[in-house]
Amino acid sequence: MQSYTEENYLKIIYHLAEKTTNVQTNAIAEQMQTKPASVTDMIKKLADKGLVDYIKYQGVTLTETGKNAAIDIVRKHRLWEVFLVDKLNFKWDEVHDVAEELEHIKSTELIERLDEFLGFPKADPHGDPIPDKNGRFAKTQFIKLIELKVGDTGTITGVSQHSSAFLKHLEKLGLTLGIPIKISDITDFDGSVEIQLADKQVNISREVAKHILISSNGKN
Amino acid sequence: MQSYTEENYLKIIYHLAEKTTNVQTNAIAEQMQTKPASVTDMIKKLADKGLVDYIKYQGVTLTETGKNAAIDIVRKHRLWEVFLVDKLNFKWDEVHDVAEELEHIKSTELIERLDEFLGFPKADPHGDPIPDKNGRFAKTQFIKLIELKVGDTGTITGVSQHSSAFLKHLEKLGLTLGIPIKISDITDFDGSVEIQLADKQVNISREVAKHILISSNGKN
DNA sequence: AAAAATTTTTAGATTTACCTAAAAATTAAA
DNA sequence: TTTAATTTTTAGGTAAATCTAAAAATTTTT
Ligand SMILES: [Mn+2]
Ligand SMILES: [Mn+2]
Ligand SMILES: [Mn+2]
Ligand SMILES: [Mn+2]
């Protein structure tokens, strides 16, 4: 059994490992909002427990055990987010912090029943996949909206930025999950993207377009 | 803001204060499953924070602030228990431990929405009253089943013992919340109580009868 | 391949919540 | 009202998770 803190380290290492194989001390420190020296201490502890492989100065990778533990926490986090949005009517920009706490509640029974209560959802309110109780989930192939060309169509199925400010912005524009879109223009001047929605057109900056994930209906 | 541990101390002091005015160090230690020396340490800390009044060797009492904090934790505990039973189909003997963890999740918004989602319940699965968001709740006047005389009738509305063993026992006998009962006999030999239910008679020991709470329909 | 910059680790402290053992105060018994 | 038993506190320490400052290793730049 891991401590609250150890669980947070595992989860953060897991997420960082989605981008780089060997996760660096400084990167962990930044995510954990702590100092590199503290990270080194914790890494040693996790290595002693067999949760990470660690070579001094070379960063860490999760062991199979460590990865499973991390995925379990991700599962809990995302299920709780679904609960908060679907059952308690939270907005998608309001759920992350509470889920950060709820994910540490230790009860397998609780999570299985919650999963059932929610109807075994496949994705959380931000479009991120929810691992099943065996830790399995489809590695979804999203395209970043910014990679689409004029005329391409698709459906918004995720975001790669979870800050409240960003999510509220999308909400205001009507760019929420499940919304079908078509790229109507890409501005020469600043590269901003004009998007055709069912009832209106909206213009978003490249920065915003980078963080919207699309399941493409095929290019044209 | 209190730590997880401080919250547990406050809650335990609150419950102990329902029986005695000045709560003793040893009593707290027993409930907290820790040593008296540790309790003294924590009491000093809580006193410094203005959550308890403390005179050396004289025990503690909660301040107004401390009491409010304690009631808030009790509220969360009981609401989560209702959630677990009503929504996730846990049995009344399975919810306490998980609620012990959930009660520490820090989000006023979460609890208010949960309360609403549950339909603003007035009592938890054990019949204990749930304080409203202002900390107010009716001080329910229960009679212990053991105090009833032959011929008295009433309804089971609470239990004063929350152990899984006890609750499972009651469940098996059909003695659950809301069940109307009538005392049909009190055995001379061992003082055990014979109870008439809608469809059957059951016999319970004095020890069990002590921990069943009845809202009386009046004596006869 | 040095020098410079960056990253990571070690060393030594701090804080929180514990602990044991022993001293002090209070309460109960003789 | 002494003595005995109980309760509570103090003193001194431990383990987990931090921190700062300084040393060591690695990487990047000249
Ligand atoms: Mn989240
Ligand atoms: Mn999410
Ligand atoms: Mn309970
Ligand atoms: Mn209860």
TrEMBL record, chains A, B:
<feature type="domain" description="HTH dtxR-type">
    <location>
        <begin position="1"/>
        <end position="63"/>
    </location>
</feature>
<dbReference type="GO" id="GO:0005737">
    <property type="term" value="C:cytoplasm"/>
</dbReference>
<dbReference type="InterPro" id="IPR007167">
    <property type="entry name" value="Fe-transptr_FeoA-like"/>
</dbReference>
<keyword id="KW-0805">Transcription regulation</keyword>
<comment type="subunit">
    <text>Homodimer.</text>
</comment>
<keyword id="KW-0464">Manganese</keyword>
<protein>
    <recommendedName>
        <fullName>Transcriptional regulator MntR</fullName>
    </recommendedName>
</protein>
<dbReference type="Pfam" id="PF04023">
    <property type="entry name" value="FeoA"/>
</dbReference>
<dbReference type="GO" id="GO:0046983">
    <property type="term" value="F:protein dimerization activity"/>
</dbReference>
<dbReference type="InterPro" id="IPR022689">
    <property type="entry name" value="Iron_dep_repressor"/>
</dbReference>
<dbReference type="InterPro" id="IPR036390">
    <property type="entry name" value="WH_DNA-bd_sf"/>
</dbReference>
<dbReference type="InterPro" id="IPR022687">
    <property type="entry name" value="HTH_DTXR"/>
</dbReference>
<keyword id="KW-0678">Repressor</keyword>
<dbReference type="InterPro" id="IPR036421">
    <property type="entry name" value="Fe_dep_repressor_sf"/>
</dbReference>
<dbReference type="InterPro" id="IPR008988">
    <property type="entry name" value="Transcriptional_repressor_C"/>
</dbReference>
<comment type="function">
    <text>In the presence of manganese, represses expression of mntH and mntS. Up-regulates expression of mntP.</text>
</comment>
<keyword id="KW-0238">DNA-binding</keyword>
<dbReference type="InterPro" id="IPR050536">
    <property type="entry name" value="DtxR_MntR_Metal-Reg"/>
</dbReference>
<dbReference type="Pfam" id="PF01325">
    <property type="entry name" value="Fe_dep_repress"/>
</dbReference>
<dbReference type="InterPro" id="IPR001367">
    <property type="entry name" value="Fe_dep_repressor"/>
</dbReference>
<keyword id="KW-0010">Activator</keyword>
<keyword id="KW-0963">Cytoplasm</keyword>
<dbReference type="InterPro" id="IPR038157">
    <property type="entry name" value="FeoA_core_dom"/>
</dbReference>
<dbReference type="Pfam" id="PF02742">
    <property type="entry name" value="Fe_dep_repr_C"/>
</dbReference>
<keyword id="KW-0408">Iron</keyword>
<keyword id="KW-0804">Transcription</keyword>
<dbReference type="InterPro" id="IPR036388">
    <property type="entry name" value="WH-like_DNA-bd_sf"/>
</dbReference>
<dbReference type="GO" id="GO:0003677">
    <property type="term" value="F:DNA binding"/>
</dbReference>
<dbReference type="GO" id="GO:0003700">
    <property type="term" value="F:DNA-binding transcription factor activity"/>
</dbReference>
<comment type="similarity">
    <text>Belongs to the DtxR/MntR family.</text>
</comment>
<dbReference type="GO" id="GO:0046914">
    <property type="term" value="F:transition metal ion binding"/>
</dbReference>
